[in-house]
Task: structure prediction
Amino acid sequence: MADRVYTSSKPIPGGAPPPAFPPTKSQINGATRLAYRPQPAKPSRRRSRRGLCCSCCLSLIMILAVLVILAAIAGGVVYAIYRPRRPVFSVSSLRFAALKVSAGGHLTSSLNINVTARNPNKKLVYLYDPISVSVLSGGVDVGDGTFAAFVQDAASSTLLSAAASSSGQLLDSAAASDLRKSSSMPVEIDMETKAGVKIGGLKTKKMGIKVRCEGISVAMPKGKKAVVAASPGGDCKVKLRIKIWKWTL
Result:
């Protein structure tokens, strides 16, 4: 029986190495390909600009908030120290020198108005611009005039006098008939001006002031005799118009 011969894959000591097999395609590509290294991402210009804008807006909002808080604190301190109060107005007298309605319905009038302005504040001085005044009766303007500008000291009263008139105003038939027949008529007085406040050496920006006086009844003039208002004083309401940027309060 013949003996079987087995070949060994191990290198024979002192002999030649076993034959090498050809490299595969993947081994060839792997030897020449460089290892992949992720590149750091470059910052986007859009994101950097957006971040800068957000930072600027946030800083601006914080500055405005601080300014508003400081203004509120300063206003509170001023109010606590000075306790500002709005001015007070009352009608002292109103005299019609003449009031005539022509056959064609044209109104001609002349009247004198005395108004007392009072400053109830002990440490504030009011600086008034000229005050426009209108006398109305049933929606009809029976006279317009102007009080001169003046400065009113703290805790003082000032008597204002003005002449008002209306010439050639055309009335409708109903209003003209009422004025001819009435022996007295209710009137309202509207006044409008601007006034600033002086606190020591500091002057504030001028604010709008509107005054409306109601509940005044005056007798109609007869001939050349002038008459005085039957109920001087009336009820005068003062409204302050404070303008902040584009808003008026």
Summary: The longest helix spans residues 45-82.
